[in-house]
Amino acid sequence: MRRLDLREYERSEPVALAVDERDALADILRGSITIEPAAGAEGVYRLTPGSTIGALEIGDLSVSIRPKLSISRVLFLASYAAGRIALHDRFDYRDEQDIVEVLALQLAAAARRAFAAGLLHGYRTEQEALPTVRGRIRVDEQLRRRFGIPLPLEVQYDEFTDDITANRLVKTAGARLARRRIRASRSRAGLAWIGARLDTVSPVEYPANAVPEIAFDRLNQHYRHVVALSRLILRQRSFETERGGLRASGFLIDMNVIFQEFVTRALRDELRVSDRVFHADDRIERVTLDEAGRVRLKPDLTWWDGGDCTFAGDVKYKRIEDAHVPNADLYQLLAYATALDLPGGLLIYAQGEEEPAAHRVRHADKLLEVAALDLSGTPAALLARIADLAKRVRAMRAQATVPTRLSA
After folding, report:
1. Helix, strand and coil in the chain, % to nearest 5
2. Would 261 disulfide with which of 81, 105, 115, 370, CB 3.0-4.6 Å?
3. Are 26 and 17 spatial neighbours (Cβ–Cβ below 8 Å)?
4. What is the average pLDDT across 169-197?
């Protein structure tokens, strides 16, 4: 198998690609890769990935897209965003490892800790036709389906089993990673162990936007980290498809989403407010720019006191560069501040994308602040920078002395 190693936002050396490989790459990574013909050669291209990282296979071509950050830093951002997962800290991550193998190591380590006291069991309601009574007879279904025939009986009962949602999440996450071409033997062994340990559990293909959540209590608290890590894996883009006879599969992570979710959760933790108070964009439904309510807006960050919005901000892993609309990010922030009648807003970039600044808008008396979050250093240092951002959020909220109240 041919192997192609790319790095986020770095232009590659010339790469020979068949037409179907080129087209599949462009389609799979649509909007997150630039493919340019190399000068003086037929079927040779220079590739520049965007913010999507991970691994994919197209026919006999194996492609790895590595982050510009270290693997350990990406894993910290993702795990914190997914619920401050306590990761196994004994692995020596090398920057050349890809994210799929690292996730496999972490999932196996979390599963071993969770399963140490035995698999979690629970009651699951079953409905089926049996020759004997078990649980209670479903009289309506018996009459509807059997027309008075006494056997089999339509029954409903509760079964105590390990085939429950928590175990299904772990098994499905392990199986999803195992479908990738993993080179490291310990990563493969860890995923095989999960599959064997959960051999009686049903794998379920959850859509990335519909991965179930688990309510935790003292009885299942030991599963919290392995379930959170499983949900993190299952919420990423994973696919297997056939494209004109060419098989394609992959596991991809959008760093824009990871960065936004990390900043949102970390600020919420530092501000000590709930997600009902400090919203992410998926909770915003009522903000519109125009009076007719046709132009809907979804700020990445908003702080609400009941129906009053007292802060709005946006989070950008990568600065939007559009020659037709320069300074698009600032225009977007101005729209939020205008629609919500706030004195200003905060635009948070990953460091290196923009310099810190403050822009007073002419004739509007709105202050648009730009912050650059340094993602380097230790996790403690990074969270200390989040604390500084939280102070700015509090200060901006305090300035919103006349918040707008949105109609229901």
Report:
1. 35, 25, 40
2. 81
3. no
4. 91
Question: How many residues in total does the chain contain?
Answer: 408
Among residues 397, 124, 74, the alpha carbon closest in space to that of 254 is found at: 74
Q: What angle do CA 355, 361, 366 make, to 5 degrees?
A: 95
Answer for the pair 145, 123: CB distance below 8 angstroms, yes or no: no
128's tokens: 């089926």
Whether residue 9 is predicted with pLDDT greater than 50 in this model: the reply is: yes
Instruction: Give the pLDDT confidence score for residue 183 in this predicted structure.
Output: 80
Of 47-51, 123-127, 340-344, the one with minimum mean pLDDT is 123-127
Residue type at 358?
A: A
* Contacts within 8 Å (CB) and 24+ apart, 110-114: 110/85, 110/225, 110/226, 110/229, 111/170, 111/174, 111/190, 111/193, 111/194, 111/197, 111/226, 112/193, 113/222, 113/225, 113/226, 114/170, 114/222, 114/223, 114/225, 114/226
Please, are residues 291 and 285 in contact by the beta-carbon 8 Å criterion? no
Tokens, residue 398 = 């305090």
Residue linked to tokens 């340990």: 197
Q: CA-CA distances (angstroms) from residue 369 to 309, 331, 337, 358, 372?
A: 18, 12, 11, 4, 10
CA angle 118, 119, 121 (to 5 degrees): 125
Q: What is the mean pLDDT of residues 229-254?
A: 88
| Contact predicate 315/301, CB 8 Å | yes
Burial call 292-315: b when 16+ CB within 10 Å, e when fewer = eeeeebebbbbbbeeeebbbbbbb
> What DSSP assignment string belongs to 134-199?
-SEE-HHHHHHHHTT--SSEEEEEEEEES-SHHHHHHHHHHHHHHTS----HHHHHHHHHHHHHTT
Mean pLDDT of the chain: 87
Q: State both tokens at 404.
A: 């707008």
- Higher-scoring residue by pLDDT: 7, 141: 7
Nearest 5 degrees, angle CA 293-CA 298-CA 299? 130
In this predicted model, what pLDDT tens digit does every residue of 206-233 receive, in sequence order?
Answer: 998 899 999 999 889 999 999 999 999 9
- Single-letter code of the amino acid located at 133: V
Q: How far apart, in Å, are the Cα atoms of 402 and each of 191, 310, 341?
A: 55, 8, 8
3-state secondary structure at position 290? coil
Asked if residue 368 lies in contact with residue 349, where contact means CB atoms within 8 angstroms, the answer is no
DSSP conformation class of 310: E
Do the Cβ atoms of 54 and 252 come closer than 8 Å? yes
pLDDT at 151 exceeding the cut of 80: no
